[in-house]
Amino acid sequence: MKEYYLAAGLFLCMGMFSCALKAAEHEKKMDSSGSATEEALVVWKDYSMGRILFNDKAPQSEGSRIYHQLIPDAEAYIRRQACDVLHTLYHGPSDHITPVHHLYYTLKDTDGISAKSGDNGEISIFYSTRHIEKSFKNNDKSKVYFETRGILLHELTHAYQLKPQGIGSYEKNRVFWAFIEGMADAVRIANGGFHGEADRPKGGNYMDGYRYAGYFFVWLRDNKDPEFLRKFNRSTLEVIPWSFDGAIKYVLGEQYDVDKLWNEYQAAVGDKKSCD
Q1: Quick check: 55 and 107 in contact, CB under 8 A?
Q2: Could you identify which of 46, 146, 154, 208 might form a hypothetical disulfide with 204, taking C-beta atoms 3.0 to 4.6 angstroms apart as the criterion?
Q3: What's the CATH architecture for 35-160?
């Protein structure tokens, strides 16, 4: 009997290892964007990013079934994406970082896509199973996985990013709103969460937030300062009251003007002719 139990235990361990290995291989195969880079994992492995609590409130939905098939271990997956978000926003754990004590991530059978709520370290994010189902209408698992990761990067940025000071709130100040949503999409873009140029909106203004601002911020990182996103996030602690132009000058120097940089960016990406 002892030999039987020993053999059974051995096969059980092998099975568990095989499942874990297959899950890891599946995640690597589905995520071609370099999720959770080795550097990010090393830098942030000991940082307390908060307890992640996953809750599926729509277990009978088709969206839930698809989600669990693509992401077998949701809490571990969310933690890995959080590493990339933190590594994009901050130099390291010694920086002044917005603390997160608990992060409640919930699958819900509801309209909409996803949203973050809460503050003071108690953060909630919901993800709509209906949206997952819509994304899967062509039975394209890679599309759903790509979309799920991109949305998660955006919402996790809201959990960990710094906020402008001295200019009101997200609900009442457009500058505040444009920074918050622009940075969230910038982090998503920087981590391969959009389809590059194909997803870049044409024209507009950085005050339109989201991808309009996000692609602009990443362009500034690529063309003006490789540390731009981290410094721009940090500017909220140093530039009070916060403004786009004040933050640009803080990061790049007094000789720079945000509107001139926007025009330069628009000319560089071909959305308008250069004034030069």
Answers
A1: yes
A2: 208
A3: 3-Layer(aba) Sandwich (3.40)
Q: Which helix (H) or strand (E) holds 52?
A: strand 51-56
Question: How far, in Å, CA of 69 to CA of 63, rounded?
Answer: 10
- The pLDDT value recorded for residue 37 is 80
Q: One-letter amino acid identity for 14?
A: M
Q: Which of 106-110, 136-140, 146-150 has the lowest mean pLDDT?
A: 136-140
DSSP sequence for 115-167: EEEEETTEEEEEEEHHHHHHHTTT--HHHHHHHHHHHHHHHHHHHH-----SS
The pLDDT mean for the chain works out to 89
Per-residue CA distances from 42 to 38, 103, 154, 168 (Å): 6, 22, 22, 37
103: CB partners within 8 A, 6+ apart: 49, 50, 51, 52, 53, 78, 82, 123, 124, 125, 159
Query: Are 238 and 207 contacting, i.e. CB atoms less than 8 angstroms apart?
Result: no
**Is the separation of the CB atoms in 70 and 229 below 8 Å?**
no
CA distance 100 to 123: 7
DSSP 80-107: HHHHHHHHHH-SSTTS-----SEEEEEE
Q: Where in the chain is the domain with CATH 3.40.390?
A: 35-160
- Whether the predicted pLDDT of 15 surpasses 60: no
Condensed to tens digits (0 to 9), the pLDDT of residues 103-129 reads 999 999 999 999 999 999 999 999 999
* Spatial contact of 89 and 229, defined as CB atoms under 8 Å apart: yes
Taking a C-beta distance cutoff of 8 angstroms, is the pair 131, 113 a contact?
A: yes
pLDDT at position 31 is: 45
> In the structure encoding, which two tokens stand for residue 175, read together?
């500058």
